[in-house]
């Protein structure tokens, strides 16, 4: 279940930038991302269905903001509540630092579940034709340490970390993105490289709890990872069709159950 909940949190989820030419590393794929540039806070209820565990299992909060030295910072915090806290208490914090040019500099993940603690770090070095990812993982209290260096060719897709997949999907241009056209991206995960792509699948109306109906962009994400029940349409994301492109709803069918994230509030300045 830990893997399933964590994958759900990853896709608060998100994916790739518009009509970019992926082989051109000098064009930052996150340049126009709605996640970077202003201060905003997005809150979510997380529902999960697996066996007798059904309903709300926790809450997630995503904070994006520029820093004082013209960099950009994102933080996603997830914690179980209610039935989730009773059966599988979990705390996850994901953080990404971006350069002034909106390229990924550093990613960190901190997980606490029962007596288990994990610290995972990754630094990104951007070259003309590729990205070097140096990863250091440390588990406590066993003190097992793992060092991994990966080189990924940009021609294979946009390289993002687990958290910045969300910034990437929020960089799409809904005016030029064609329905059904797939765009590739890559997520380094430990010693593994996860290949994925996304496509705009439809324009849909979405009814809020208040009764208001808004327009959304439905994006399908296809992920080649064993954590998901299906490689095709592994995750479905609904973005508000406005200047924020806020991920208002995320659904996914995992091998350990069905997950759904619903945005409960959005604040920006």
Summarize the structure.
This protein has 269 residues and is mainly beta. 7% of the residues lie in helices and 54% in strands. The chain has three helices and 15 strands.
What's the arrangement of secondary structure elements?
Layout: H1 2-10, E1 40-50, E2 53-66, E3 72-80, H2 83-87, E4 91-98, E5 104-113, E6 116-126, E7 130-140, E8 145-153, E9 158-159, H3 164-169, E10 183-189, E11 192-207, E12 213-223, E13 235-240, E14 247-254, E15 257-268
Question: Any overview of this molecule?
Answer:
The protein has helices spanning 2-10, 83-87, 164-169, and strands at residues 40-50, 53-66, 72-80, 91-98, 104-113, 116-126, 130-140, 145-153, 158-159, 183-189, 192-207, 213-223, 235-240, 247-254, 257-268. It is mainly β. A 15-stranded mixed β-sheet has the order 8-7-6-5-4-3-2-1-15-14-13-12-11-10-9. The chain is globular and about 50 Å long. The termini are far apart.
- How big is the Rg? 18 Å
Report the strand count: 15
Low-confidence stretches: 1-26
What is the distance, rounded to the nearest whole angstrom, between the alpha carbons of the first and last residues?
36 Å
Shape: globular
Helix proportion of residues, in percent? under 10%
Mean pLDDT, as a whole number? 81
Number of helices: 3
Give the topology string: H per helix, E per strand.
HEEEHEEEEEEHEEEEEE
Query: Biggest sheet: strands, sense, closure?
Result: 15 strands, mixed
Please give the oligomerization state of what you see: single chain
Strand order of the largest sheet: 8-7-6-5-4-3-2-1-15-14-13-12-11-10-9
Helix/strand/pairing category: mainly beta
Give the amount of beta strand, in percent.
Answer: over 45%
């Amino acid at each position: 279940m830990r893997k399933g909940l964590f994958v759900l949190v990853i896709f608060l989820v998100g994916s790739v930038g518009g009509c970019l030419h992926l082989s051109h590393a000098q064009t930052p794929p996150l340049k126009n991302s709605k996640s970077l540039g202003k201060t905003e806070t997005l809150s979510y209820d997380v529902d999960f269905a697996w066996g007798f565990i059904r309903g709300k299992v926790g809450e997630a909060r995503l904070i994006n903001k520029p820093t004082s030295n013209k960099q950009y910072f994102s933080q996603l915090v997830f914690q179980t509540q209610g039935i989730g806290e009773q059966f599988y208490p979990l705390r996850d914090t994901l953080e990404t630092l971006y350069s002034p040019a909106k390229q990924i500099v550093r990613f960190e993940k901190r997980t606490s579940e029962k007596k288990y603690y994990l610290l995972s770090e990754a630094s990104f070095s951007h070259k003309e034709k590729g990205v070097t990812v140096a990863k250091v993982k440390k588990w406590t209290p066993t003190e097992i340490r793992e060092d991994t260096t990966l080189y990924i060719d940009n021609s294979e897709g946009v390289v993002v970390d687990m958290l910045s997949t969300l910034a990437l999907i929020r960089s799409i241009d809904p005016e030029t993105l064609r329905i059904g056209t797939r765009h590739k991206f890559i997520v380094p995960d430990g010693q593994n490289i996860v290949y994925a792509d996304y496509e705009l699948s439809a324009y849909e109306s979405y009814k809020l709890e208040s009764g208001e109906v808004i327009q959304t962009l439905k994006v399908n994400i296809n992920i080649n990872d064993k954590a998901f029940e299906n490689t095709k349409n592994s995750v479905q994301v609904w973005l508000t069709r406005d200047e924020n492109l806020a991920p208002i709803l995320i659904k996914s069918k995992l091998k350990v159950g069905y997950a759904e994230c619903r945005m409960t509030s959005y604040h920006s300045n």
